[in-house]
Each structure stands twice: as structure tokens, then as C-alpha cells.
Amino acid sequence: MTTSVPEQYIKDYKNLNSQINQSEPNWLNDLRKKAFQNLSKNGFPTKRKGNEKWKYTNISKLAKTSFSFEKENILQKSNYKNLIISDDSWINLTFINGALQTDISKIKNFEKGITVTKFSDAFGNPKINQLIKDNLSKFSQIDEDGFTSLNTAFINDGILINVDENAKILNPINLSFISHSTVTPNVSYPRILIIANKNSSLNIIENYIGDSSIQSFTNSVSEIMLEDSSKISHYRLLNEGQNTFHIESSRVNLKSNSTFESTSFSKSSKISRYDLKVNIEGENSYCNLNGLYLTSGTQHIDNYINIDHIKPKGTSRLNYKGILTEKSRAVFGGTVWVREGAMKTDSIQSDKNLLLSDEAEVDSKPALFIYADDVQCAHGATAGNIDAETIFYMRSRGIDLETASKLLINGFANEIIDCVNIPGLKKELEKLFLESLPKYKLEF
Fold it and tell me: Global pTM?
């Protein structure tokens, strides 16, 4: 079952097409048109029964709300620095409601070996235009679900990051997406295309911030491609406000001997979903996916994380942790496929949750589908309160109950924060997340 497309999306789509720059290539217009036709036909996935991908996440309210696509920037740019995590040594690109703000972004003097450009600036260059055409929507297919179709239908000015062969980019690329609305509910459509060519490396940060006083919706799609022997360390921070909805689809493709390391941090949104799929298409490739999420109030977070081992000798690690309080809810769906012929695959996945309230709920469903011999695979999920025996031991050493509880919660979260290899980012995350941990003491 799906829901029809709200009239506002139809109106905004027609308005966008009427403003299309004549210099934009026909292939992009055709892609947008095809995506909107798919959206109009299939709508959004609102049925929960029989729909495993969305079984535990009800997005009916999101699907029926009219969000307006407003490109105009109504945020005082002098205040943007108070909203984002950044460092002067990073390459900081700031987007407001999906539009790159060139006057407050560092878009010049990049290191040699990397191209960072808006789609609109790239279409006049035949080589880069062809690069975007060959890779855009290659792995994020528009028929996957309505939200991917919606983002693709509204591609207007995405960002391309292309790392040359053998280039080692030392300074992190920090993409900060600010969602801001004060008048009507608005929607933004970030689109990211990252290509790491043979034997290259890159650190990338996706930073989503929302300060809206009324409802806003971020519908993001990213595509990341790693060629042979390349490496990407990817950090994602979701720190939007209580009135925000956030749906992100991320597709990653690994060729031989490549490495993808991802660490995701999430808090604050009313409803959020992170749909991450990694395709291991080359031998001896490695991916390590870590995540930490905090929920409170009536917040709802859904991590839908999938790894597809297509070629032999691939290694994957998946470790997500959640801390839930009050009436919040978390969903974890983690699936690992080991395809026929993908021998000597080594895969471990884990989802662990601390429930600090009797009313908090987690639905965790890890899964393994193995179609090859000679593999090592394991998965597991846990949910519960702080261990009473450990608390008792700490109290016997003179530590009070509240301090002992806090130390255990901090230790639980720090395992993921310690995965961050960028000192400035790690320091800010420690401040942001550890200070956000609930004051709690285990009741006996």
C-alpha cells in the first residue's frame, strides 16, 4: 500500500521545471522526469503489514504532510557558525535548505588531486558532465522507494567530489546541511556523489543540522564509489531539531582491495531513517560500519543497514549502539548477504541497546543470508538496562549510584566515539554526545 503524492510536491515539481536553466543537459531532465513518474505511480511506502523494509516505521504523517520546496535562504548567515561542527583546517562547505552557500563556504584552494563542484558548474565541462551522467543514480535506483524517487525528481544542484587516481587528500571535506524554516514546512533535497579513483583516499563528513521552529523535512541521497585500492573514512552526524523529519539513502560500492569506514551519530529528529547499503564487488575489500544513536521523548529512529558480499575474501564489521529514554523508539534492520561464489567472507554484525525507561522500545532484526561455503559469519542483538552486578561492584568500591550509572553509559557510548580518527571532530562529538547523555541511576 502506498499513499498518493501531496499536491504541493506536484506544484513544486512543475515550478522547478519552469525555471530549469537551458544549459542543463537533457539526460538530467529525463532522469528527473522518470523519477517523478515513478513517484506518482508508486507513492510512499505507508503500509506496514507485509512491507519488511518499513514494518516498524510508520511514515504516514510524513507522507501526507505538504512540505514546500523553498530555495530562498531565510537564515541569517552570521549565525550559521553556531549551528555546525567545523574546523579551520577542514574544507567546509555549507548548504542552507539544500543550496550551497558559496560566500560562507571554502570552495577554492583545494588540495591537488580532488575536484569538488556543484552539478550546475560541472555541466559546462564535457568530461565532468559525462562523469556525473555515468554515475548518478547508478546505485541509488529511483525504483527503490518513493523517497529516492522524490530526491531524484528534485535534483537541482548536487555536489560532486572526485578524487584523482593516487591522490591522498589529507584535509577532511565537511559538508554541513542546515535545514531552516520559520514560515511554512519546508523540504530540502541534498544530493551527494563521491568517487574515489584507484589508490586514492579521502575523509568525508556529512553534517545535518536543523533549527526550525516548525516542521521541516530533509530527504537526502548519497552515492559513494571506491575503485581498486582506494579508501574512504566517512563520518555522518544527524543533529536536527525536534520538529524535523529526516530520510537518507546512502549507497556504497567497493572494488578490489578498497576500504570503507563509516561512523554514524544520530540524535534529536522526530522521525529519522538511515538506509545504508554497501556492495562489496571486489575481492579483498573491507567495510567497517559503526553507529551511535540517542533517542528521547517520543523520537523514532530507524537504521536500515545492509551489506552485500558479492565477491570472495571480503570482510565486513557492523556495530551499532543505541541509548533510549522516555517513550522513544529505535529500529535496527541489519542484513548481510553472502552471494554464491563469495568464499572466505568474514562478517560480524551487532546491535546493542540500552533501554533507560520502561516505556522505551527497540525492534532489532539482524539477518544473515549465506549462499557460499567456507565463510565466517555471525550476528547478534541485545537490549536491556545497565548491568546490576556491575553497578553493585562499583558501589562496593565507594562510587555512588548515579555516578556509577553515568560511567557505564559513557563507556557504552565511547566505544563508537573512539572510532573517530579526526581529532577535532572527535572532541566536538564527545562534547555533543556525552553531554547529551541522560542523567540516570539504576533503580533496584
Answer: 0.94
